[in-house]
Write a structure and sequence with these properties.
Layout lengths: L2 E5 L3 E3 L4 E8 L8 E6 L8 E6 L5 E3 L7 E6 L4 E6 L8 E8 L8 E4 L3 E6 L1
Parallel strand pairs: 2-11
Antiparallel strand pairs: 1-3, 3-8, 4-5, 4-9, 5-6, 7-8, 9-10, 9-11
């Protein structure tokens, strides 16, 4: 059974940094495309893709986070990361780790974790 377990969300001030982690279990970690989505609380819309990484390590980013966020993965730890720098109040959201259906951008979600909350205050 595939499981995605996020952690690392917190409350920070504008301009601060966070590093989110997602431990992936139940699948060959290196064989799948993974990513991060986010959803703003109270806003009724689909999750927004913000970063993706392919099975061979190719990365993609939404324009809103390009240059500020960095996605990476550690094969030894079966863990996906998202480094968030220069955080802005608009980055406040629930962040979800996802397993993608394929390597296309933006990714189509096959499965997601429970999410971790990031709150940025001014």
């Amino acid at each position: 059974q595939v499981q995605l377990a996020e952690s690392g969300g917190d409350s920070v001030q504008s301009g601060g940094s966070l590093k989110l982690s997602c431990v992936v279990s139940g699948l060959p970690f290196g064989d799948y495309c993974l990513g991060w989505f986010r959803q703003v609380p109270g806003v009724e819309r689909e999750l927004g893709a913000i970063a993706g990484i392919s099975d061979i390590g190719t990365t993609s980013y939404a324009d809103s986070v390009k240059g500020r966020f960095t996605i990476s993965k550690d094969y030894a730890k079966n863990t996906l990361y998202l480094q968030l720098d220069s955080l802005q109040t608009e980055d406040t959201a629930m962040y979800y780790c996802v397993k993608a259906v394929n390597s296309l951008w933006p990714p189509t979600v096959a499965q997601r974790g429970q999410g971790t909350q990031v709150t940025v205050s001014s």
